[in-house]
Amino acid sequence: MRFQIVDAFTDTLFGGNPAGVVVIPDGKDYPEDEVMRRTAAELRYSETAFVRREGDGIFRTRYFTPAAEVELCGHATIGSAYALMQLGMARLGNTIRYETLAGPIDIALQENSILMDMADPKAYGVIEGDEAVRELYRIMGISAEGQGVWSKNPSVQLKPEKISTGLIDIMLPVKDEEELERIAPDFPALTELSRKYEVVGVHAFTVNGKDGLIHARNFAPLYDIDEEAATGTSNGALAYYLYRYGVLTADVVNTVIQGEKMGRPSRVDTRIVMQGGQPGVKVGGLAVTLAEGEINI
């Protein structure tokens, strides 16, 4: 089977978030689930996408972390779509469709960005209660005091909330970039907290970036991902979260900077689009191939 290692949400090698991509030969079935999980663990990236062509422009795609299968992965989607173009299985300028456990995902293969539709955004509730909020921030290694402030409108109080555009994460607002950098999670405690809240992990962010952009860090130790350099699903969820608070508006491209603490800066573009009067989310970015070859599974 052919494979590639692709850095997604960047146009520079060793930037962005790397993903494994394994392409299932036409007419062949997927390997057993445990084989795919162990392949993801062997490749040692946070996610590996296993892609099989189902028809003209339609691909069945499954995503595995080193620990388990997940319904969707944004950076592995962007990376695998780029890989399909490099392998001649998809063409620039076209829109392809992924059939995933999170539902069908349309992906526009544009020259300046690979732009994917996220699953319908859903809010699963604010983290309620002072003690629960303090516990959450404490596990992340910072205090809950003074967080959630939007400098452009101090009357808006951002609160920790569970949001999904395919995978549920806790959106965790912090006051500035310095506070974001100070985060040092208690990973065993965060693993248990993620299990308790039935989320993939925590997406910490600040809307008060010195450069005027949103900055974020993502942690998912429940799935053997201590920190991730670029997370499409989480930033899609963040776009919906911030739209609901009035921080973002529809039909404007917003850029999230992620991965700085890891030395792999990423640029993740998000856009809220109105569809039948309801907000939808698109997430996009560029990608570059690091390696390719054959994998014997």
From TrEMBL:
The keyword rRNA-binding does not apply. InterPro entries: Phenazine_PhzF-like (IPR003719). The active site is at 47. It comes from the Bacteria. Keywords: Isomerase. GO terms for molecular function: isomerase activity. Coiled coil: none annotated. GO terms for cellular component: cytoplasm. This is Phenazine biosynthesis protein. The keyword Isomerase applies. Belongs to the PhzF family.
